[in-house]
Amino acid sequence: MKIIKQITFFIMLIVVVSACKKAFTDTSFVSTAATASNLSVMFNITQDNTGLVTITPNGVGAVSYDVYFGDTTTIPVNIRAGASVQHIYKEGNYQVKIVGHDLKGGTTTFTQPLVVSFIAPQNLQVNLTTSNLTVNVSATAKYATFFKIYFGDSTNITPEPYTSALPGQVITHNYLNAGTYVVKVIALSGGSATTQYTDTIQVSKQIDLPVTFEDPNTNYTMSDFGGDVSTLTVDPVNSNNHVMKVVKTAGAQTWAGTTIGTSLGFAHPIPLTNSNKKMTVMVYSPAAGLDIKLKVDNHSNPNNGLSVETDVLTTVANQWEMLTFDFSNPAPGTPAFNPSNTYDLASIFFDFGNPGTGSTFYFDDLKMAPASLSQINLPVTFESTTVDYTMTDFGGNASVLTTDPLNNANHVMQSTKTVGAQIWAGTTIGTPAGFAQKIPFTSVATKMSVKVYSPAAGLDIKLKVDNHTNPNNGLSVETDVPTTVANQWERLIFDFSNPAPGTPAFNPSNTYDLASIFFDFGNPGTGSVFYWDEVHFLSQMNLPVDFNNPDMDPTVTDFGNNSSVLAPDPANTGLWVMKTTKPAGAQTWAGTTMGTPVGFATPIPLSATRTKMTVQVYSPAAGIPVLLKVEDHNNGNNYVQVLVNTTVANQWETLTFDFSQPQPGTPAWSASNTYDKCSIFFDFNNAGSGKTFYWNNVILQ
C-alpha cells in the first residue's frame, strides 16, 4: 500500500511539472505590452538652501527609469516606476535626463531643465561697536552660511580685501588712522543671492591726558556751554603748533565754559592723589588779571557733588603762560578734593564770573603737574621737570617761563616790566619761601651770577638777597650791575661785598635764602621785556680751574699792569677762557693771580709723587717764556715756580710745570709748606709789548 502511494505521488509531480513548463514558454503577453512613452518628471525643491531635490519620473508603459542628474554625477540611478530619488545640488541650472524602460526592452528618453536657486539670507542683524581706533563686528542671518566684512580702509585696493566670519563670530579690526569709514557686511547663503548691510562709522582715540592737540588720531571735539565757542586752530605765536581757541561770545553766561572732550570725558581717570593735586594748562589770554577756572568731575554723574574746582588769575596779556591749578585749594563754596572720587572729566572757564564780551582765549598742554615739585634751589636753570619754578612778581613785573629767544631748546624766565610798573618792580626767584637751602656765602665767596638778555645796554640790574622768614628788615644785601649789550646773552656777576649805596652791608653771619632780581632798576616800567637764566652762587676758585664752570667765581687778580678778562675761546665757539693782555709798558714780572689774593678754597695737594700742574695756553708766538708760581697766600716767602716756553703760535697747547724742578735760583718745593695760591706770568722777564694770551684748564696732574 505504501509503494502504491509513492508511485501515485511521482506520477502527479510529473504531470504538474509538465504543466508548468508549458506556462513559462508562453510570452505572447509581452508583445501586447505598451511601449514607454509620454515621459515626464516632477521636481520637488526644498526651500531651505540645502539644495535637496526629490525627483519623481512618470510615463506610460515604463516599468523603470534611469535618472541622470545633469551635474558632475556621471552614473545614473535606476528606480522602479512610481518611485522617487533624492539628490543634493548646488545652486545652478541643470538638464535632468530620464530614460524609461518598458517590458519589451525598449527605452524612451526625456530631458527636463532643473533650476536650483537659493533664497537670499533673511533678517540680517549686525552688531557693530567702536572703541578708539578699534571696531568689533558680528552678524547673524537666516539661511546665511558665512559673511564677508569690508572695513572701508582698503577701498583703493582691487579687489577690495575682506574678512570672512561665521554667524555670530566677533571680528576685531584696528584702524591705522582716525577717520570716517563705511563698514559693509555681505551675508551669503551658498548661492548668488546675498543680503547686504552698510554703516558709516567714525573712529578716533578718546581724548586723554596730556592734551596737546597734536595727535591726528585723537578726537579733539570740545563740548561748549553757556555761550562759549571753541575751535581747533593754530597757535597765534607759533604756526607749527595746534591749540584750542575759545571765544566767550558777547552775552555769554558768566559761567560759560568748555568741557575738554565729549561728555565721555577722558579715556582714563585723572591721576590726582593726595600727594599731587595739581594740573597745569598753557593759556594765552587777551588781558592779565582774568579769572580762569578749571573744574574736574565724574563723567557718569556730573554736577552732582563729585567735582572739585579751583581758580587762577592770568598774569600777562597776549602771551603764553603756564597756569597751575591746585585742587587742594578749591574755590569757596565748592566741594573739596576727595581722593576716593573718580575724576575723568575736565572743563575750563575763561574770565569766570563775568558775562561774555567776545574775548578770545587759547589753551594748550593740559596735563598733570609734575609730582612733588621740589622747592627751587641754586643753581636755577629752568630745565628740571621736578622743580617748582613759580616766580613771585611785585611792583608791576610779570614773569613767565618760556623758551630762549635765541635757542628753542633752552628754557628761560621772561620778565616784563609792564607800562607804569614801579621803579622798584622786581621778581623774587621762587615763592616767598625762597631757596631750599641758604646761599653758601662766606667772607671770601660773596658773588652770584645771572645770565641776562636785555633790550638795551646800560640798564641797571639789581640782585638782592634776604632772609625769607624776616624779609625787608635789615637782613638783606643788594648790589647792581649794568648791562653791556643789547639783545644778546651776557653773564652778569654780582659781588655782595660791594653793596648798593645806602643799603645794608654784606654780613656772612646772616642767613640769606631768598633772592630777587630787578630789571632797569630806578626807572618806571615801559613794557620792556627781559630774559634771564642760570642763577648761580659762585664758589671760591679752586683746582681744577675751568672758566666754563658756571659755579666758580672767575675773578682773577692782575698785577704789574696786566689786564685780564673772561672772553670767548678764539678757536672753539661756545667756550669761555681767560684772556690776558700784557700791554706795552707792563712790568717784566707782570702776572695774574688765579682768584683773589686769598687764593684757592683749599691748598694745592702737591706731594713727592704729585709735583706737576698743567695749563692750556694759546700764545701769539712760539718760544715765549711762561712762569707758573704757587705760594702760601699767608706767607709769600713760601713759594715755588717753574718756567716753560711755548712751542706753537696761535694754537692751543698744554704746558706742563714740574715743581720738582724749580726755576734756577728760586726755592725748591717743600712738603712742609702750604701752597694755596697760584699766579701765571706770560712773556716773563720781558717788558710788556701788547701781546695777548688765552688760558684755561689749570689742573694738578
Automatic annotation (TrEMBL):
InterPro entries: Ig-like_fold, PKD_dom_sf. Residues 1-23 form the signal peptide. Keywords: Signal. This is PKD domain-containing protein. It comes from Hydrotalea sandarakina. The lineage of its organism: Bacteria, Pseudomonadati, Bacteroidota, Chitinophagia, Chitinophagales.
